[in-house]
Amino acid sequence: MSDRASDFRYSTGAAKVPWAAVGEHLNLDDIEAILRFLVQPQQGREADYEAAVVAARRAVADMFATGGPATKLSLDANVAAVEQRAREMLNCKYALFLANATAGFEIAYKFAALKPGDEVICPSITFISTILFPLSQGAKIVFADVDPRTVNMDPADVARKITDRTRMIVPVHIGGYPVDMDPIMDLAREHGIMVLEDAAHAFGAWYKGRAVGTLGHFGAYSMHEVKNITACGEGGLLVTDDDTYGPVLSLARYVGLDLSQQIPNWLYDVVCLPSEKGYAVPGNYSVTEIQAVVLLSQMQRLEQIIAKRREHAHYLNERLAEVEGILTPPSDTDEIKPTWHLYLLEIDPGVVGADVQALKAKLTEKGVTNIPHFAPLYKFQLLHQLGYDHDAIAASCPNTEEVFNHRFTHLPLYPLTFEQVEYMADAVIEAVEELKAGK
Ligand SMILES: Cc1ncc(COP(=O)(O)O)c(C=O)c1O
């Protein structure tokens, strides 16, 4: 009898004939292919690189001689370890590691059981994935205007836009700067509305002593390759403290498969998810153990990464605050700690004598990457195709129009060297001074 347990999604104990449908394991060739992908040759050093690959392959072969391949590649101990670590870091009750933040939103929206005609209040400025699922359900997105100093959702405008059809509010912590959540949660309590935080940029941000993303009923973070930490290119975390939905998060991630229940002659049952209106149908948003291993490793570096970002951001703030016409973003305080995913650069076009589009063109000339800054979603064709009236929404979001067209863009912070950040500060100052001089 083999002492190795069967290695499908559930353990059936030690078996002479293990569960064979597990598929192929990763062998030496696969691992070499991964290494070649992750570490690419420098131009001119190809021969040295090939020699290094041979040495690495030999080292991995030595490891195989003393061990065996991982037999469980999806949803296992490392995924559980990510979730455990997330609960500790965020001080929340339930955490689910899944394919991406968009999948996390989708699950939370399913719990809310949106139906056609329900209204969901989202900020005008965010990434499209914040609103895709409610749109797919025929719900109506109501765009809240932004606070011009943070480009985050303005709670005062949310209050104006609540109706008796409002089912959800979705604050988005743009660039990792916390939305002012107290007034949002007050409104939610007053009107019985569910709050889903789009914390895609905000894993590791703090608001008044609590982790951003755990302040609403649900929060979802992104571990996509362009976020502060990544789960091998894609990944997300959904968190909640809710005792109805929290215990079924893993059913929501993987097809409603419930190992705690069996049907006759079969090992498991498949169940619906609870929702505000009865039941919701689950989907498949699984992640791999390899993603989990990478994310666990990066989670250990998160504080260091945010500290470096903060150092760069505070340096930019010091330099740019000296310049008339530049509005610097708020620095860290005891209560508000952003993740500094992006640096919000804002100008006063009245003082500079030109708007941010002219500034961006100058920065490009000076070799400073021009991040395509977040556009108001109602400008995208997708919304137009679904019948949204651009002009009417723009009229209801005056700050959005002003900041997008004239005032803000984002700058990168990491992983830049100090010299690059210094160059960026010089370039921004030079560009603004040139614009002021009419050049
Ligand atoms: C504000 C915002 N929300 C959501 C997402 C989606 O994240 P994911 O790619 O993990 O689904 C992004 C991704 O860039 C984002 O910028």
What would you note in describing this structure?
With 439 residues, this protein is of the alpha/beta class. The chain folds into three domains: 41 residues; 214 residues, Type I PLP-dependent aspartate aminotransferase-like (Major domain) (Aspartate Aminotransferase, domain 2); 136 residues, Aspartate Aminotransferase, domain 1 (Alpha-Beta Complex), CATH 3.90.1150. 40% of the residues lie in helices and 14% in strands. A seven-stranded mixed sheet has the order 1-9-8-5-4-2-3, with helices on both faces. It is globular, with a radius of gyration of 24 Å. The termini are far apart. The mean pLDDT is 95. It binds pyridoxal-5'-phosphate. The site of pyridoxal-5'-phosphate has 14 residues, from helix 4.
What is this structure, in a nutshell?
By secondary structure, the protein is of the alpha/beta class. The protein has 15 helices and 17 strands.
Strand order of the largest sheet: 1-9-8-5-4-2-3
Rg: 24 Å
Estimate percent helicity. 25-40%
* Largest sheet, strands/sense/barrel: 7 strands, mixed
CATH homolog superfamily of the largest domain: Type I PLP-dependent aspartate aminotransferase-like (Major domain)
Distance between the terminal alpha carbons, to the nearest Å? Answer: 82 Å
Question: Which consecutive residue ranges, at least 5 long each, have pLDDT under 50?
Answer: none
